[in-house]
Design a protein that fits this description.
Blueprint (H helix, E strand, L loop, with lengths): L5 E3 L1 H31 L7 H25 L1 E3 L15 E6 L4 E8 L10 E3 L3 H6 L7 E6 L2 E10 L2
Parallel strand pairs: 1-2, 4-5
Antiparallel strand pairs: 3-4, 3-7, 6-7
Helix pairs in contact: 1-2
Length: 158
Amino acid sequence: MKEKEVLLTVQGLKKLEEELEQYKSVRRRDVAERIKQAIEFGDISENSEYEDAKNEQAWIEGRILTLEKMLRNAKIIDDENLGTDEVTLGSTVMIRDLEFEEVLEYTIVGSMEADPGNSMISNESPVGRAILGKSKGSVVEVTVPAGVLKYQIVDIIR
């Protein structure tokens, strides 16, 4: 079975590499030290510090495996050569909510980098999916649980 491609910007790749390095070089060592200290307390069968540290160690090792898999399957979005004719992965887009006349700015990224609070939406999100491939001036409808939202693409910055 082919593993799913992980779409990342250059910044997203760097962030994942830094996170992986942090887990491998710092967090692993810290939790190993906690386990060692807990063992020194004596009987580990009723030692909550030991149990907590072992659980954290398992979580850290799982996260390391996940990050390594993501990096192995990473496909970098080349945002240096993006055009402004249509919305693509890596595009920064200004859209107008036609109901509230509010202009919003979003960058379209892969699902692993999505961070709506920082205006980075996934290409797989309803809005991301609706505007991909569209050009400036296009009006799109997005079906959400509350109904249908209408947006107009005001500008494609990059």
